[in-house]
Design goal:
Layout: E1 2-7, H1 15-31, E2 33-38, H2 40-43, H3 50-67, E3 74-78, H4 84-93, H5 98-102, H6 105-113, H7 120-134, E4 140-142, H8 148-165, E5 173-175, H9 210-218, H10 236-249, H11 253-259, H12 265-290, H13 294-323
Parallel strand pairs: 1-2, 2-3, 4-5
Helix pairs in contact: 3-12, 4-7, 4-13, 7-8, 9-12, 10-11, 10-12
Bound molecules: tryptophanyl-5'AMP.
Length: 329
């Protein structure tokens, strides 16, 4: 089974990214033929610093390797190294409805945050994402809940292409984890954890040191009740901590509720903090070892891109032929 997922380059990946996505990447290597891309072209759709973008691609590469993504068992590459993505994005624009792009939640959220320019790139972002996925004839896309709508649109684009130009693309489906698909901000548990939050106080970064993690969990917003039960409407803070503990321990939220029945918030938060520290510490340590070897990281990405290009270019030959673009094949 072909698995594909993409992740934006930043050195500030958080617990939501880790639980919702990165750990499914590691798992995907066992279940299928997995391909993962660090999507630097997507990162250019909002204001950014070019030198920093280069660095953050390497940060993200080191982080994925530290988490257990293994280039011997999957393909790991930088999106911009495989030019087929941008060409396919353009061609897919012809079967993408403007109205569908207008409905994308992420476009609405991100465009509202831009101070200087809402770029056309930000609008077309989901088409580039569809190109990433469809270029590899992907069956399964492991993502967090916030990417659900983008994967739905990818399916729609693939269907419309197949209808218009003949069977070309596999129709992919998302794989969204049952627990941890939407980790919330610890300070504002009704918003998802995100590095664009106004403050870092509610965002646990994968690279936070143990004391920072302990402080953030200790200060997490909870409600005035005392029960440790999941009720996202009335108790969003406690529900989020239950979800986090369940995810890092790999148990169900019900098991967490049963374990902490009758115990206080203080004790519960301490257990959450220690579990998260224990979960992330090995990743951070491994990251520190891997990150300095920039030549090695670049080599990994280059070798990955060579393998990815082989697959994507075969798809492009089919797409060009179907669309009547270029010389007769
Ligand atoms: P990105 O880089 O924002 O996020 C990477 C992954 O982390 C998941 N995620 C979360 N999961 C749980 N709780 C959260 N609070 C949380 N925040 C983020 C995201 O769902 C994602 O899976 N558009 C994508 C990148 C992309 C892509 C692709 C993904 C580009 N092309 C092709 C899949 C297939 C993005 O911005 O992810």
């Amino acid at each position: 089974m072909r698995i594909f997922s993409g992740i934006q380059p930043t050195g500030r990946k958080h617990l939501g990214n880790y639980i919702g996505a990165i750990r499914q990447y590691v798992d995907g290597q066992e279940r299928g033929d997995a391909i993962y891309s660090i999507v630097d072209l997507h990162a250019t759709t909002v204001s950014y610093d070019p030198a920093e973008l280069r660095r953050t691609v390497l940060d993200t590469t080191a982080m994925l390797l530290a988490a257990g993504v293994d280039p011997e068992r999957c393909i790991l590459f930088r999106q911009s190294d495989v030019h087929e993505h941008t060409e396919l994005c353009w061609l897919l624009c012809s079967v993408t409805a403007h109205g569908d792009l207008n409905r994308m939640h992420q476009f609405k959220e991100k465009s509202a945050r831009q101070r200087e320019l809402v770029s056309a790139g930000l609008f077309v972002y989901p088409v580039l994402m569809a190109a990433d996925i469809l270029a590899y004839q992907t069956e399964e896309v492991p993502v967090g809940d916030d990417q659900r709508q983008h994967v739905e649109l990818t399916r729609e684009i693939a269907r419309r292409f197949n209808e218009r130009f003949g069977e070309t693309f596999v129709i992919p489906r998302h794989r969204i984890p049952e627990v941890g698909a939407r980790i919330m901000d610890l300070q504002e548990p009704t918003s998802k954890m995100s590095t664009t939050a106004p403050s870092d106080a509610g965002v646990i970064l994968v690279l936070d040191d143990p004391d920072t993690i302990r402080t953030k969990v200790k200060r997490a917003v909870t409600d005035t009740g005392r029960e440790i039960v999941r009720d996202p409407e009335r108790k969003p803070g406690i529900s989020n901590l239950i979800e986090i503990l369940a995810a890092v321990r790999d148990v169900s939220p019900q098991q967490v509720e049963a374990e902490f029945e009758g115990r206080g918030y203080g004790e519960f938060k301490q257990a959450v903090a220690e579990a998260v520290v224990e979960y992330l510490a090995p990743v951070r340590e491994r990251y520190e070892e891997l990150r300095p070897d920039e030549a090695g990281l670049e080599r990994t990405l280059r070798e990955g891109a060579d393998k990815a290009r082989e697959i994507a270019s075969a798809t492009m030959r089919q797409v060009r032929a179907a669309m009547g673009v270029g010389p007769t094949p």
